[in-house]
Amino acid sequence: MSxxxxxxxPIGNLKDITLRALDVLKExxxxxxxxxxxxxxxxxxxxITTKTxxxxxxxxxxxxxxxxxxxxxxxNGFAIVSDAGTPGISDxxxxxxxxCVKNDIxxxxxxxxxxxxxxxxxxxxxxxxxxxxxxxxxKKGRKKKLEILKEEKRTIILYESPHRILKLLKELNEHLGSxxxxxxxxxxxxxxxxxxxxxxxxxxxxxxxxxxxGEFVVVIDALKMx
Length: 226
Ligand code: SAM
Known about the structure:
This protein has two domains: about 5-110, Tetrapyrrole methylase, N-terminal domain (Cobalt-precorrin-4 Transmethylase, domain 1, 3-Layer(aba) Sandwich), CATH 3.40.1010; about 115-220, Tetrapyrrole methylase, C-terminal domain (Methyltransferase, Cobalt-precorrin-4 Transmethylase, Domain 2), CATH 3.30.950. Helix content is about 35%, strand content about 20%. The chain has eight helices and ten strands. Strand 8 and strand 9 (about 195-200) form a beta hairpin. Helix 3 packs across helix 4 (about 95-100), helix 6 (about 140-150) crosses helix 7 (about 165-175) and helix 7 packs antiparallel against helix 8 (about 200-210).
């Protein structure tokens, strides 16, 4: 069947893979993987022997039309996975999915792990409406984006690496004001999972004393609406 399955994979805890994801990964002809080594480890753990093929930001522009052709001619469809979480969410996938839509290839997107949802729901900040910004630009456009976010009234979600978390918290303090509460979740679903809530400045102090480790989701409280 000409079909692309979007398959979320665990962001730490392997038990978060769904039964349905395992079934699909076993049944498809090929699994497109951001990093085949990472995915092959996951597949080995679940004793899945499906063939993998590299599909990532460095080759997606070159191979997408060939992959579309292969999916169209496949018997059991293809799956796409990223290293962790949901493909397309700050990860490769968008380009292929867009081309599948254009080419009338059926897409079946499975629900499953993604880092921003647990970070948001456990922050205690409003989650009826929110803005997901993913990673801020590293250099060009970063300041401008922070100034735009200053006006945003909804809860804001950002992704950040351990190398830049301290810089980001300092910038949030500078651009969004010193009273706005921030929730920082790291190592979600893992043994050392931790969520800290405070003003950006309080969190700067915390991470200045303790080297930031793991991957981070930063959730910024909504502004009270009158
Ligand atoms: N596709 C993934 C998803 O659905 O969440 C996101 C991939 S993006 C390249 C990686 C970023 O996601 C990390 O830098 C971090 O901000 C966030 N992230 C992924 N796993 C995480 C975890 N276990 N704990 C906290 N943040 C995590």
